[in-house]
């Protein structure tokens, strides 16, 4: 996998560096989050979101009920009120049933919201990725790595609405925690006295209950400590995501090139490379493990201590006969709930950090999709003068970094002419064809194309869509647009008659057919579509001399009036053309081929 052109981008997406102003990133995160809620699916979005929030508040309500129940239950036991026992057990079962209902409803709503949101956002990204050939431009300029993974994985993580996960889940959780903190703070007020702090001979009395103040101090202290302990964990998690993505991309690269690797017997090298990539994951894993142990130990100590602090504060009051046993238990529960609600930030801190890394990667994808590179070469389809198929004027082809590649002052391809483009490797032949197809914007000048007929570009390596062989031949039409007899006759004509019976079989034809056979599939496609302008980029490079000649003869016989521009390295094939464009040293020379075959 070639590294992305933009190294800063790699560092940013790994969460290692923030290269963009915080305001811009916040604005992006806000737009990304809210976009779905103002989309055409807004009614369902808001309904599900409101339900989700309501269910979260319902959850808080059940915990408050449980707290009341605890108080009554332990008081009734202390006072040996056996008559209340069955009723209180029944009440407990009712509250538990309510809690189960809340969990079920929460799952139902959050899962539905997640997939609807993901579905909408995936469509939105897909539309933009395919628009204006951005998917091609991103690869051409290697703007970012793994856009596929961003569209699949990062959007999935971003839209997964669960507590402590997506920004929406975190926000709803925050609202629930505030409600919970207020409710349990109120319960605590009922059991605790005011906090008196002796300072320099004065006794400062803080209103609102000692339990509340202890909880606030404890949470503040705990949050600072846990955040500090958690920093290495967050860093490691971000790196983990990046290393995993690299490893996966490297595996795909080996899979795609398996044949060459097997031929050249470089398995050991490849294995070494992959293991080196995996070693990053392994090394990071150990660091992550230690960071996780530190964080888990810190959080566990924090939570355990949280449950005993209220006992130290309330049990003396119980011994002094100021409060009941039920109040001790209820205030202990309330203290824990209150402190946990206040500790919300500590709980969601790792999830929040992962979301930030996620959003950074989506921002890089957005930036690459939205970036508008000034188009140097004007592409004017359908604007060539009558009788002219391709009209190139003052063309200067440049590489993406601005280096000049080829200058072509004037080149007119008239209807019916057959041009061969020749030049050494790297001279810019394919780039010139890309400019003709409107896919190369770097440079200056203009390319106007014919307003009539159908144009077709055949590259050296043909794209065969997934599906049947018939499907591959009919592309870009649908298989059902053409009858089987026509396709069978074409297969015979291009010397692939052996596959007539397989034409409906869905197989990995791209892997199965040899490069030469694939080029014959291209010929079948040409003969089926009969374009008036045919652009061939080394379309016979994998064929033997006899089959290559058959290719050009078949095209000429079927479409004698077609305009053809082809790149070939074989001088014998030049004989099938009427004109020659010779590229040399960054310049082009046009000439006639006298003995046009
Ligand atoms: N996407 C790209 N980014 C950067 N450089 C590129 C890109 N595409 C092509 N080039 C460069 O432009 C030059 C011309 O490439 P091109 O593919 O047009 O050559 P060619 O004449 O078709 O070569 P060949 O006969 O080997 O196929 C090469 O040096 C190549 O590295």
From TrEMBL:
<dbReference type="InterPro" id="IPR011527">
    <property type="entry name" value="ABC1_TM_dom"/>
</dbReference>
<keyword id="KW-0813">Transport</keyword>
<protein>
    <submittedName>
        <fullName>ATP-binding cassette transporter</fullName>
    </submittedName>
</protein>
<feature type="domain" description="ABC transporter">
    <location>
        <begin position="390"/>
        <end position="595"/>
    </location>
</feature>
<keyword id="KW-0067">ATP-binding</keyword>
<feature type="transmembrane region" description="Helical">
    <location>
        <begin position="84"/>
        <end position="109"/>
    </location>
</feature>
<feature type="transmembrane region" description="Helical">
    <location>
        <begin position="211"/>
        <end position="230"/>
    </location>
</feature>
<feature type="transmembrane region" description="Helical">
    <location>
        <begin position="44"/>
        <end position="64"/>
    </location>
</feature>
<keyword id="KW-0472">Membrane</keyword>
<dbReference type="InterPro" id="IPR017871">
    <property type="entry name" value="ABC_transporter-like_CS"/>
</dbReference>
<dbReference type="InterPro" id="IPR003439">
    <property type="entry name" value="ABC_transporter-like_ATP-bd"/>
</dbReference>
<dbReference type="Pfam" id="PF00005">
    <property type="entry name" value="ABC_tran"/>
</dbReference>
<dbReference type="InterPro" id="IPR036640">
    <property type="entry name" value="ABC1_TM_sf"/>
</dbReference>
<dbReference type="InterPro" id="IPR003593">
    <property type="entry name" value="AAA+_ATPase"/>
</dbReference>
<dbReference type="GO" id="GO:0005524">
    <property type="term" value="F:ATP binding"/>
</dbReference>
<dbReference type="InterPro" id="IPR050835">
    <property type="entry name" value="ABC_transporter_sub-D"/>
</dbReference>
<keyword id="KW-1133">Transmembrane helix</keyword>
<feature type="transmembrane region" description="Helical">
    <location>
        <begin position="166"/>
        <end position="189"/>
    </location>
</feature>
<keyword id="KW-0812">Transmembrane</keyword>
<dbReference type="InterPro" id="IPR027417">
    <property type="entry name" value="P-loop_NTPase"/>
</dbReference>
<dbReference type="Pfam" id="PF06472">
    <property type="entry name" value="ABC_membrane_2"/>
</dbReference>
<feature type="domain" description="ABC transmembrane type-1">
    <location>
        <begin position="46"/>
        <end position="354"/>
    </location>
</feature>
<keyword id="KW-0547">Nucleotide-binding</keyword>
